[in-house]
Amino acid sequence: MNISDLNQYLYCPRRVYYIKYFDTIETNYYLVDGKLKHNNKSRKGGWIKELYVKSDQLGLHGKIDLLEIKNMLGSGYVPIERKRGFSYHANDEIQLAAYCMLLEDYLQEPINLGYIYLFGTNQRYAITITNWHREKVKEITKAICKMTIDSIPDFTDNPNKCKKCSVVQYCMPFETKMLEKK
């Protein structure tokens, strides 16, 4: 399972359902803008860009946006997850935690720190990876694995999320709710 699925599931389980079972994803402004921002290359040294890591033990794989190489005691590697907005959310922390767990499995050493970089603020925020983060990664991974094509998840509690969603044309939350009323 791709680590980005964890973030998407926490955003809206229905989104993961449509992508997983129907391979449906529309290109919208938010996806294109995010991709363009990710393609901007930094000139700073000491980074590995877009490192792909896989763990059979965790059942996860993904591409770390940036891996900063530090010379310090303990781990010298710090993953950086880049986001297009002005703030980050718990689902972004969970995605970062999953990358840390992948690195731990790969390097066989603890990775307890990562950064979320926000293009909107041009700042990065240190995230200490806790046991809560690690348990959430495992919990969400199990929930996604238990999904079946016969059981469509409920709509999100926050309909504002639908406006930015890349599967809204397949999910059709507004149309479905109107038809369900009848």
How would you explain this protein's 3D organization?
With 182 residues, the chain is of the alpha+beta class. It has a single domain (3-11, 26-152), classed as Lambda Exonuclease, Chain A, CATH 3.90.320. Helices cover 45% and strands 21% of the residues. It has helices at residues 3-11, 13-22, 29-39, 90-107, 131-145, 160-164, 168-171, 173-181; strands spanning 47-55, 60-69, 77-83, 113-118, 123-128. A 5-stranded mixed β-sheet has the order 1-2-3-4-5, with helices on one face. A hairpin with a 4-residue loop joins strand 1 (47-55) and strand 2 (60-69). Helix 4 (90-107) packs across helix 5 (131-145). The longest helix is centred in the middle third of the chain and has 18 residues, at 90-107. It is globular, with a radius of gyration of 17 Å. Mean pLDDT is 86; it is low at 28-34.
